């Protein structure tokens, strides 16, 4: 499933397996593989704080199950790390050092038990926080695609939930539909471009995905209460 992760251990009795993905499968898969010896060398001084199932493996205890954790959704922080690993933002000469730092960062999320928020965060507050994080992630995704039509299915895949649920949750959290939020972000950005003086009305409209000046002017009037030309610097 998109935007999910699992931690597992391959026992000596288990053979390596391979899976051929279908042509339609366009997801990115990130696999981090480390040995017990490397874990002990790297986290040895904090070994007793590691995931209980991992501690059993490091103490040579066997288990019928190779899974150390259930499949779960990636957090926003983990999504950002995974995306960065796929497209590292550093020059090639620095990548070995950068990769090591990122691998250590992501393993600290997975090799240690998660922070238990239940005792410090009420259930209702937790749900509101999760909804707010999803809404923030939606807005960030939309801001990166102002010149593109809103694609609810692609957005839902990125966030990791069903399209109809995402639409309902976003409206409940923000008071706006995703379509309304997308338009507001487009017009806000266009207004900024116009007020800075580097774009004329036609250029600003094209920059935020409007091919029709009449549609752009109508949307601008509904959002700002004035025409786009009123934002031009004289």
From TrEMBL:
UniProt keyword list: DNA-binding, Transcription, Transcription regulation
SMART domains per the UniProt record, alphabetical: HTH_ARAC
Keyword DNA-binding: yes
Domain named HTH araC/xylS-type: residues: 136-234
Protein name stated in the entry: Helix-turn-helix transcriptional regulator
Database matches in PANTHER family: ARAC-FAMILY TRANSCRIPTIONAL REGULATOR, HTH-TYPE TRANSCRIPTIONAL ACTIVATOR RHAS
Record-linked Pfam families: HTH_18 (PF12833)
